[in-house]
Design a protein that fits this description.
The protein is an alpha+beta fold. The protein contains 15 helices and 17 strands. The structure holds histidyl-adenosine monophosphate.
Length: 417
């Protein structure tokens, strides 16, 4: 038997119904915020991602040569593609440009619960500006997506990469080394960072200063402990706008560095604490990428939500309720009622009900068993006498209750209940 590749999943109809429900709620939130959907290719020139996405992402990328000997990559994320699309075709569009997307991404990670090699993101990018209002708009959208999906327990943390990035770059000098330090901060791998500082004879005070800033997590007032700077003033203003949007419970987290390298200013993450190790259900921030892809520099802010993790987090809170796959399953009592049964199912479908009919020429009792096993809400039984009176028997599959209704009224009877 051929198995599916490690880190990938198959989704059955019930699971897909749950996933689509979550996805539709989040799509609707994007639409309500005035964002329009875009779709970009599943694979791109590998260079699109190697230019700036960061070593972590590059190490995990699925890269291959196509038949024209071009180096291609399955997308590890979608932001770079959206910015490429913007540079290629949308740079003259009125600003700000508000775009959202849903798609699969690929990263060669160590699979575990909540971490896959193929996973699904819903993300949004607001292109063309960078100020507290536009950043607040993007944070508000991310929060609204998560709320619309129905999740109750989540924590929004907001930081500013400018402070740590500027300090590390200035004090360390070497860009590559500074990048490695930032990744260690992102992973909160203090032991490795200590060893690196010792091995490279980097100043211990710098380590302590970084650790102290990265440790600033809590209420907005924490910012008073930092030297007042452009970044702290920016965050204070941003929190003021968030309040106007009715978002009052965000925390400050100056330790957010993010695994991708393109961020320049505000950065934010959302966790679902119940998920344990893979609790980060969303990540985002403000960045510039367009100039790397041959366009004019343009400020943008965006985020991506891990749909798989949102579904897991919701299921940890309560069951995701989805409608039964079938409203009605039409059962001919005998062979000579089959044609009549087809007419009925066609009619129910045209009236918008989820309806099915016996396709296996089964006996009535086997058909009822089947209707129950697929969780049909009603069996519509077509008997000889009923057929003559243009009636059917409507059987509630849960209670077993049966009543006769006119064939013309089946849909309205089902809808009434
Ligand atoms: P990211 O933090 O790399 O950011 O990914 C966003 C979200 O995707 C994560 O918070 C997580 O929920 C989910 N995710 C990432 N990797 C996996 C995985 N292996 N399995 C399951 N879920 C995963 C970005 O991708 C940026 N493009 C976000 C962004 C948009 N920044 C600006 N604009």
């Amino acid at each position: 038997m051929i198995q599916r590749p490690r880190g990938t999943r198959d989704f059955g109809p019930v699971e897909m119904a749950k996933r689509r429900k979550v996805e539709s709620a989040m799509r609707e939130a994007c639409a309500v915020f005035g964002f329009g959907e875009v779709v970009t290719p599943t694979f791109e020139h590998a260079e699109l991602f190697t230019l700036r996405s960061g070593q972590n992402v590059v190490d995990e990328m699925y890269v291959f040569r196509d038949k024209g000997d071009r180096e291609m990559a399955l997308r590890p994320e979608i932001t770079a593609s959206v910015v490429r699309f913007y540079v290629n075709e949308m740079s003259n569009f009125p600003k700000p440009l508000k775009l959202y997307y849903v798609g699969n991404c690929f990263r060669y990670e160590n699979p575990q619960s909540g971490r896959y090699r193929e996973f699904f993101q819903l993300g949004a990018e607001l292109i063309g500006t960078k100020n507290p209002e536009s950043d607040a708009e993007v944070i508000a959208l991310a929060v609204n997506c998560i709320r619309s999906a129905g999740l109750e327990n989540f924590v929004v943390r907001v930081g500013h990469i400018g402070i740590l990035k500027a300090m590390v770059n200035k004090e360390i000098g070497d860009e590559k080394l500074a990048g490695e330090v930032l990744h260690m901060i992102d992973k909160e791998d203090w032991d490795a960072m200590g060893e690196m500082f010792d091995a490279r004879a980097l100043p211990r005070q710098l380590f302590d200063k970084i650790a102290a800033i990265a440790d600033m997590k809590g209420e907005l007032e924490l910012l008073n402990n930092l030297d007042q700077s452009e970044a702290t003033g920016y965050l204070q203003e941003l929190f003021g706008v968030l309040k106007l949007y009715g978002i009052e419970d965000c925390l400050i987290d100056m330790g957010i560095v993010r695994g991708l390298d393109y961020y320049t200013g505000m950065v934010f993450e959302i966790d679902a604490p119940r998920l344990g190790a893979e609790k980060q259900i969303m990540g985002g921030g403000s960045y510039t990428l367009s100039e790397l892809f041959g366009g004019e520099p343009v400020f943008s802010t965006g985020f991506a939500i891990g749909i798989d993790r949102v579904v897991l987090a919701l299921e940890a809170e309560r069951e995701i309720a989805v409608p039964a796959q079938l409203d009605a399953y039409v059962v001919p009592a005998k062979d000579d009622m089959r044609k009549y049964a087809f007419g009925i199912v066609a009619r129910l479908r045209s009236q918008g009900l989820r309806a099915d009919v016996d396709l296996m020429r089964r006996s009535m009792s086997k058909n009822l068993k089947y209707a129950s096993s697929v969780n049909a809400r009603y069996a519509v039984i077509v008997g000889k006498e009923e057929m003559a009176k243009r009636m059917v028997t409507l059987r509630d599959m849960k209670s077993g209750e049966q009543r006769q209704v006119m064939a013309d009224d089946i849909a309205s009877e089902i809808r009434k209940s």
